[in-house]
Automatic annotation (TrEMBL):
Pfam families: DUF190. This is DUF190 domain-containing protein. It comes from Paraburkholderia phytofirmans. InterPro entries: N-reg_PII-like_a/b, N-reg_PII/ATP_PRibTrfase_C, UPF0166. Belongs to the UPF0166 family.
């Protein structure tokens, strides 16, 4: 299947509607029926204001986070429409990709591995 990989960049202490922004994005992905979202913590990063953000031993509030999602073009349109409607200010990267599932739904990898993208 063709679509996009969208990666949002934020940090642990950013909030939207009272929830951590990364968590809110994951729940939004579920609400919109997207295939999933993965939150990836980072040790350190530099933001658009050229400020270093990092996770410290006692304080993780400034820890950089990425939220990664794979979606179709229509799903991306719905996601970005919702983000605009909610007034979310967030840096992202949107890359064209091919995506799918390999193996069977039982998780044992014994399904058809012919390279065809799985049906959704």
């Amino acid at each position: 299947m063709n679509g996009y990989q969208v990666t949002f960049f934020t940090q642990q202490d950013r909030r939207h509607h009272g929830k951590p922004l990364a968590d809110w994005l994951v729940h939004l992905a579920g609400e919109l029926g997207l295939r999933g979202a993965t939150v990836i913590p980072a040790c350190e990063g530099i933001g658009h204001h050229h400020r270093i953000h990092s996770a410290h031993f006692f304080e993780l509030a400034d820890q950089p986070l990425s939220v990664v999602m794979a979606m179709t073009s229509d799903e991306a349109d719905r996601l970005f429409d919702r983000l605009r409607a909610d007034g979310v200010h967030l840096f992202y990267v949107k890359t064209p990709v091919e995506f799918g599932v390999i193996g069977d739904d039982n998780g044992n990898g014994s399904g058809n591995d012919s390279g065809n993208a799985a049906k959704s």
